[in-house]
Amino acid sequence: MAKLRFYYGTMGAGKSTMALQIHHNLVKHSQGLLITQHDREGRAVSSALGVSAAAEVIGPHDDLFTLASTEISSRGEVDFMVCDEAQFYLSSQIDQLVRVVDDLDIDVFAFGLLTDFMGHLFPATARLLEMADERNEIQVESRCWCGELATHNARLVDGVQVYHGDVVVVDDGSDTAVSYELRCRRHWIDGEGKPAKETLRSVG
Ligand SMILES: [Zn+2]
């Protein structure tokens, strides 16, 4: 019986690295598909450690059940799908993945973040938690600047944490610098970044 497995972790937990490893191991003995959305580099899944593999990049208009069915028609067989950046899929696409598992007997390995910069579950993540056969937290710990376990992603605009805005920021070429930083819950709520060295020196 095929299964829908969901692996979640914060940024820096090595989700893409694990997705690539699973794909690498399975593809030696079986036929599979690697898909992603909004990855660092074009049509590939790439890990922060520098490993990458060619991937199918999907958008909101892609039906993942149709995608898998079409692949079966052209290749004769598909045994598994590895889905990176799954938090960005539509929740309807997660339901399509459920049908891929149940109707096409294809194992699905989905990787994603739990919460956005506002501290809310991504809709696709919520759907994965509701529908997956297995929910696995990736046990690579990321740390806040203070040394505590990092559980939240902070969005910084020109260095200042923000709590409102679009879930996905599209680079519009403006001068506004958007970046993300891992924080513990306390420092995510306080919006407090690492103190500058001068501050530390005056305190110490
Ligand atoms: Zn902290």
Describe the structure.
The protein is of the alpha/beta class and 204 residues long. The chain has 2 domains: 4-137, P-loop containing nucleotide triphosphate hydrolases (Rossmann fold), CATH 3.40.50; 141-191, 2-Layer Sandwich (Wheat Germ Agglutinin (Isolectin 2), domain 1), CATH 3.30.60. Helix content is 30%, strand content 23%. The chain has helices at residues 15-27, 64-75, 91-104, 123-131, 185-190, 197-203; strands at residues 4-8, 32-36, 44-46, 52-54, 56-57, 80-83, 107-112, 134-137, 152-157, 160-162, 178-183. The strands form 3 sheets. The protein has a 6-stranded parallel β-sheet, sandwiched between helices. The chain has a 3-stranded antiparallel β-sheet with strand order 10-9-11. A two-stranded antiparallel sheet has the order 3-4. Helix 2 packs parallel to helix 3 and helix 3 (91-104) runs parallel beside helix 4 (123-131). The protein is elongated and about 60 Å long. The chain starts with a strand and ends with a helix. The site of zinc ion has 7 residues, from helix 5.
